[in-house]
Write a structure and sequence with these properties.
Length: about 525
């Protein structure tokens, strides 16, 4: 008597019924076998002799086959099937991914699968002998309509409804792939790849570890991929979701028709975004990033006011210590700008496109490169000076704040160098610093995290907001800064052509004049109103 084919949601394990669908996932893993406990009177085997100690290591390994059966395109009709030992090996020989099968005689386990994409309240375990106690029959045609060719996929826009953690399968386009980077975990150093994928107007970040990190890092940007059995996790403190890998995660090639649709959806999303103004984009949120990438807001984070001399006093050669405080120093002057390389005078460094490190990159030796700005700045306040490195993003940010347009494309030319020198020369800067450990020199180094102008100057004009510059009383910005100083401290030797500010000789100076709304009497009026003292009688 032929068995009646049922969907996973309808199957209960009754006689003359079989659960049917398409095998969409079929994997095998090797697990250590559980060792039986030995009694007190039972002799133990010894190494090199007969007994249990003489058994080979192969007998301590057991095979487990895991399969996912999809009946429709809905994720609710996916059944998890497991088979241990010989019956699993035979199932693996009989079937492959993509086969239409009907399974009869499996044992219904009244518990949901722990590590599976199945949403059902049960899973199926195959026991006994395949072909006798358990029947697995290949079907020549689908028992009903809507049998999928692939595992049912979850759209990225639905991830925002995940409340805790869930295992899913997705198809998306990789839009950013920084490659595999080594990071410190609680146990040891491990490789991780934080690629960003997009589907339509929704983006999410991946966190693939270990061997999956290398596999994801090998995928090209603007390529559609299938991510099977990935974990979507919601952070408890914020509305942020991230895709992570585990043992069962696999990266598969996306079918051509599906890849074309994904690329078209992304193209339409980019076109719609390009036609929207920035305000409209913020209001509508048309392109949504589901992952709040944990980056520190160096501009607005808490910082301790300090001076360069105080920070340099912390740097002791041969002594490393952990300093996590952010320090802010204001009224800094840029005295010089040079290359970060001692052997050359290049301001543009060839860097890896993926990880932004200097080329050649050990992690991506065959990857493409790009030119990125990297310079060494000499900073000074009123009492000391030091050198810090400034890289591409901060240099571009400083140019935007100074309303400076850098030549495109970036080239290490006289024009670019003159533009950067004038930009840093015509302002006083406020910087935020942290300390980083230099293991090679065994000392601490200052690392500039943020730089912005606190006073912008041009050769003949001061760029200040008029309402804030008109004060009731004269005010001079001292703050132990350079080069602003009170005019009464300036002396000019017209014969020798020297300008001195206190004890410091200068070639030129800029006069910062603050206009106020107080009318002072002139000399003529003062001479009339001032009466000479009366002689003593």
């Amino acid at each position: 008597m032929a068995a009646t084919c049922l969907k996973p949601s309808e199957y209960r394990g009754d006689k003359n019924t079989a659960v049917a669908g398409r095998l969409v996932i079929l994997t095998q893993q090797e697990l250590p076998a559980k060792q039986p406990s030995q009694g007190h009177g039972q002799p133990k085997g010894k190494k090199g002799k007969s007994g249990k100690g003489a058994s080979s290591s192969a007998s301590n390994i057991v095979h487990k086959v895991e399969a996912h059966l999809a009946a429709t395109s809905s994720p609710t009709e996916v059944l998890y099937i497991e088979a241990w030992g010989e019956i699993g090996d035979k199932l693996l020989q009989l079937c492959q991914v993509g086969d239409l099968v009907a399974i009869q005689g499996g044992t219904v386990q009244a518990a949901p699968a722990t590590f599976s994409t199945s949403r059902l309240h049960y899973h199926l375990r195959l026991k006994g002998t395949l072909g006798i106690t358990v029947l697995a029959t290949k079907l020549t045609e689908a028992p009903w309509a809507d049998v999928p060719d692939l595992h049912p996929l979850v759209p990225l826009r639905a991830l925002s409804r995940v409340k805790d953690r869930q295992q899913i399968c997705v198809a998306a386009v990789i839009i950013d792939n920084p490659g595999a980077i080594e990071r410190q975990t609680k146990e040891k150093m491990a490789m991780v790849c934080n690629a960003i994928i997009q589907q339509g107007n929704t983006k999410v970040r991946c966190a693939f570890w270990h061997e999956h990190a290398e596999e994801l890092a090998a995928q090209a940007v603007n390529e559609a991929v299938l991510l099977y059995q990935v974990l979507v996790t919601k952070r408890k403190s914020e509305d942020s979701w991230e895709l992570s890998s585990w043992r069962g995660t696999s990266i598969q090639e996306c079918p051509a028709a599906m890849a074309e649709l994904l690329m078209l959806a992304r193209t339409f999303a980019l076109l719609s975004l390009s036609r929207m103004r920035k305000k409209e984009l913020a209001d509508t949120g048309d392109c949504r990033m589901l992952t709040e990438i944990p980056v520190r807001d160096w501009e607005n984070c808490d910082a301790v006011p300090s001076t360069l001399s105080a920070l340099l006093g912390v740097v002791v050669p041969g002594q490393l210590r952990k300093v996590e405080t952010v320090f802010v120093v204001s009224d800094l002057q840029i005295l010089g700008i040079s290359s970060v390389k001692s052997e050359t005078d290049e301001w543009l460094i060839a860097s890896c496109v993926r990880c932004k490190r200097a080329s050649p990159c050990a992690q991506h030796p065959d990857g493409s490169t790009e030119k990125r700005l990297a310079v060494r700045l000499t900073l000074a306040d009123g009492s000391s000076q030091c050198s810090v490195m400034l890289y591409h993003e901060l240099l571009l940010k400083a140019a935007v704040l100074m309303e400076i347009t850098l030549p495109e494309p970036l080239a290490d030319s006289k024009e670019l160098r003159a533009t950067l020198r004038d930009m840093f020369r015509n302002a006083q800067w406020i910087c935020r610093f942290t300390f980083k450990e230099n293991d090679f020199q065994q000392s601490l180094e200052l690392e500039c995290r943020d730089i912005r102008p606190c006073l912008r100057l041009q050769p003949t004009v001061v760029l200040m907001t008029p309402p804030s510059g008109q004060l009731s009383l004269p005010l001079c910005r001292l703050n132990n800064g350079c080069p602003v100083a009170p005019l009464k401290a300036v002396t000019v030797d017209s014969h020798l052509g020297l300008v001195s500010v206190g004890k410091v000789d200068a070639n030129f100076l800029r006069a910062l004049v603050c206009f106020n709304n107080v009318k002072l009497p002139d000399d003529k009026h003062c001479s009339k109103t001032i009466q000479p003292p009366r002689p003593c009688e």
